[in-house]
Amino acid sequence: xxxxxxxxxxxxxxxxxxxxxxxxxxxxxxxxxxxxxxxxxxxxxxxxxxxxxxxxxxxxxxxxxxxxxx
Length: 70
Known about the structure:
Layout: H1 15-19, H2 26-36, H3 44-53, H4 62-69
C-alpha cells in the first residue's frame, strides 16, 4: 500500500485511545462538537502547542476545552 501524506500508520493506537475523551463529557462532545469547536480542540497543553506553532496570540476554545478535557 502506498503511503499518503497525512496517512495514519496501521500500527498506531486507536484514535479514541489517543484522543482519550473523558467519559462524562463524551455525550456532549459527540452531539454538539461543531457548535462547541470552530477551530483547534484538545487539552490546554495541545492548544498551547498549536498556538505557538501557528504564532497566534490567542488560544481559541480554551474555556470549553478546560471544561471538557480538564
